[in-house]
Amino acid sequence: MTRPLLVNGHLWGVTSRHPLTTDLIEWYANHARPLPWRSAPNPYSTWLSEVILQQTRVDQGTAYWERFMVAFPTVTDLANATTDEVMALWKGLGYYSRARNLHNAARHIVTELDGVFPANAEEWRRLPGVGAYTAAAISSICYGEPVPVVDGNVQRVMSRLYDIEDPVDRKAGREAVEVACRAHLDAESPGDSNQAWMELGALICSPRAPQCQRCPIAHGCLARERGTAANRPVKQPKKAAVEVEVQFTIPTRKGQDGKVQWWVERRPEIGIWSQLEAFPCTISPLSPVAQGLFAAGEHGGELRFGPVPHVLTHRKMTAWFTCAEMRQDAGMSEPESPGRWVDVEGGVANWPRLIDKVLPELRTWIVKI
Q1: How far apart are the C-alpha atoms of 118 and 110, rounded to whole Å?
Q2: pLDDT score of 323 more than 60
Q3: How do strand 302-311 and strand 277-278 relate by DSSP bridges?
Q4: H-helix or E-strand containing 199?
Q5: pLDDT of residue 298
Q6: How far is 55 from 213, CA to CA, in rounded Å?
Q7: Could you tell me if 189 and 334 lie in one domain?
Q8: Closest Cα partner for 222 from 4, 12, 28?
Q9: Which are the contacts of 311, defined by CB distance < 8 A and separation ≥ 6?
Q10: Is residue 236 included in any domain, yes or no?
Q11: What is the pLDDT of residue 201?
């Protein structure tokens, strides 16, 4: 039975498998990357791969997936891990709320669901950190549930295929992409179908310089026909990154063994660097002082290290580090915030990337003063 599909004024006749989808799945069978979680897909390994690959390139994410599978080969192993163990393995991937949600979801599966994974996309979405995309990917790949996956790659492919003029991050454009995805889903092989569309976006229909001459469905692409591929997808203008100043205070002391130690505290569950460990800090709008290029040394009567620039998705940071020696003979008390003393040399903590990248210099600086 044929049903009409109207996307951006273009009418398609859609059968159980759209002819373009057939062409694409044939291409996927011959060109799909041999990613480790594809060889024998199961809910745990697939879920882990989808969480890691959010905001992460495949070449970088694969190594993290392999390390996680070695350290926590089952969902029970992940659930029984400590927060520090999970965060230490995640270090360097950024967007640390992904790791926290992954860990919390694993604990929920083990304690509340008796270790049994959700049976469909709707149930997967009830877990922490699992949205529509991740739920659809797991359920279609592992269970054969006919639900379309819409990630950034698929969004780009469909917006070009149908030359969608509406911004895909607004309601009209988002709905147009979803309609196209449903129409091109192969109900008999939804996992391969979804992965084929994602793979096309990753390997061929790239954001810049799409390789239309190698595309298996170029003959049906409206944007290619109209010369608008470079302008698709349309998105709303991004907000400028906020410039902020981070003032780290490093309490230090000499331990009973004479080694220099610094005080670290766990960051709150909500907010930047959640569940990682860092020095006490304040974050505020960038001040005129931080805009100067001061080297480590005396400034304003304080011994400071910086500036250290660091860029996150929505923030441009300038960090400064101030040493605060905790001397009991000077009547100074221990830091009031919950935390622990860690040896400067050889001590281990789950640092955010901002600190981790200057850790060798910080250690040398602290030991010298």
Answers
A1: 11
A2: yes
A3: unpaired
A4: helix 190-203
A5: 42
A6: 28
A7: no
A8: 12
A9: 241, 317
A10: no
A11: 97
Q: How many folded domains does the chain comprise? A: 2
One domain for residues 248 and 211: no
Tell me 287's DSSP state: P
Band (pLDDT 50/70/90 cuts) for residue 328 is low
Convert the pLDDT of each residue in 84-114 to its tens digit: 899 889 988 888 889 999 999 999 999 999 9
Q: Over the stretch 190-245, which tens digit does the pLDDT of each residue have?
A: 999 999 999 999 999 999 999 999 999 999 999 999 999 999 999 988 888 889 99
Residues involved in catalysis: 50
204 and 248 share a domain? no
Give backbone dihedrals phi and psi of 302, rounded to 5 degrees, phi first: -120, 145
Question: What sign for the dihedral angle of Cα 258, 260, 263, 266?
Answer: negative
Q: Do 136 and 10 sit in the same domain of this protein? A: yes
Residue 293 lies in a domain: yes
User: Residue 47: helix, strand or coil by DSSP?
Assistant: helix
The answer to whether residue 137 sits within a structural domain is: yes
- 224 in Cβ contact with 237 (< 8 Å): no
Contacts 24+ apart (CB under 8 A), 203-209: 203/31, 203/33, 205/153, 205/156, 205/157, 205/160, 207/156
Same domain assignment for residues 75 and 212: yes
The strand pair at 260-266 and 277-278 is best described as: antiparallel
Range of the domain at 291: 242-368
Mapping DSSP onto H, E and C, the string for 225-249 reads HHCCHHHCCCCCCCCCCEEEEEEEE
This prediction has a pTM of 0.77
Please report, as a single letter, which amino acid is at residue 44: Y
